Amino acid sequence: MLPKVLTIAGSDPSGGAGIQADLKVLAQFGVYGGAAVTALTRQTSAGVLGLFPLPAQWVLEQIRDVLWDLRPAVVKTGMLQQPAVISGLGRLWGDYVREGAAPALVVDPVLSSGTGVNLLVGGGLEAFRDDLLPITTVLTPNVPEAEALSGMPIRGIEDMAAAAEGLLQYGPTWVLLKGGHLPELADDRIVDLLISREERHWIWGKRTPGADLHGTGCTLASALAAGLAHGFSVPEAATKAVEWLRQRIGAPLFVGQGRGVVC
Ligand code: PLP
């Protein structure tokens, strides 16, 4: 039996981000993927052109249907887009866990696209903090997302640790704070931080100069979800996912007229 992951995310018809990217990554890692769609986008490799949210109730019904049917080992969320979806998922999760299910929850707190289009409507940050972070196994913010959720500015690696600790106060078991948006570190180094209440792992690597790619956040969270579904611990799955993504960033695919992609 293949391990199973359910992704809850937006559709990117250009195939570099969102559910299309998630399903490709899950398949590459030998995981069966289900996908509940939160919103459609009009989008090319150059950026988001439009957003068409599905009614929140419809999104939550899709999730309920497939959660109880597939019984995935891991659920991964991407662009949830509406506070009613975020809070509704929190309630639904409570029902599911009360019945004895114990999937891991990987939350990629998507706020905006790499090209600056807003992908979360008003009230979304509060919904994340109040209803999703308390049940999250691994939260995977980039620097702007960690700043928005924690309310703390991040200018260097000391700030990264402080913001990650601030985010742990909202209840996730682990935070994987991605340092790719930090100002350049010495010697072209790059660092991500994985932190829990007991552990702290700095995952160092070499920056690929000039990389402006599409869909890196979605693919990292999916690779991490796949590793967890295969039974790796959070530190093992996170380190493998980060190292896999860094290799991909070094050899992106240029499939369209815009930015490169990694899957
Ligand atoms: N479209 C969807 C559906 C997404 O989930 C995301 C990001 O998570 C994006 C677009 C933006 O991707 P990028 O930041 O790589 O432009």
Automatic annotation (TrEMBL):
The keyword Transcription regulation does not apply. Keywords: Kinase, Thiamine biosynthesis, Transferase. GO terms for biological process: thiamine biosynthetic process. The lineage of its organism: Bacteria, Bacillati, Bacillota, Clostridia, Eubacteriales. This is Hydroxymethylpyrimidine/phosphomethylpyrimidine kinase. Transmembrane segments: none annotated. It comes from the Bacteria. InterPro entries: HMP/HMP-P_kinase_dom, PM/HMP-P_kinase-1, Ribokinase-like. Residues 12-262 form the Pyridoxamine kinase/Phosphomethylpyrimidine kinase domain. Pathway: Cofactor biosynthesis; thiamine diphosphate biosynthesis; 4-amino-2-methyl-5-diphosphomethylpyrimidine from 5-amino-1-(5-phospho-D-ribosyl)imidazole: step 3/3; Cofactor biosynthesis; thiamine diphosphate biosynthesis; 4-amino-2-methyl-5-diphosphomethylpyrimidine from 5-amino-1-(5-phospho-D-ribosyl)imidazole: step 2/3. Belongs to the ThiD family. Its EC number is 2.7.1.49, 2.7.4.7.
